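[Primary structure, fold]
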Amino acid sequence: MQITQHGQYYQIVNVTSQRHNLLALLCGEGETAGPPVVERFPAIAGVEREFLDPQELLKAVLAGVERANREHGRRFRVRVLRYVENDTPPESIYSELAYRLIVHMIRERSG
């Protein structure tokens, strides 16, 4: 897994021989200004696979963020979530990706 920052977005990519998952999050800490915006990157050309369910993916991401917040005593909130619409299922993998992204942000901010 690789975590990078692109502007205000933190992105995690999980690529193996059989899997490809990308998750980008724009988060704030302590903010509660409405539900997250979900944005899809276009499908990867040449990959024949059903599109991920955005509602299930959002549910998984929010569960991962909540777990990281609970374990680390923080209050990160997702403002924008980005993903590739035909990445490898199941959507539940995004819970772990979101968890790892938030833990990375916490460690980075803790110095």
In short: Helices lie at 54-72, 93-110.
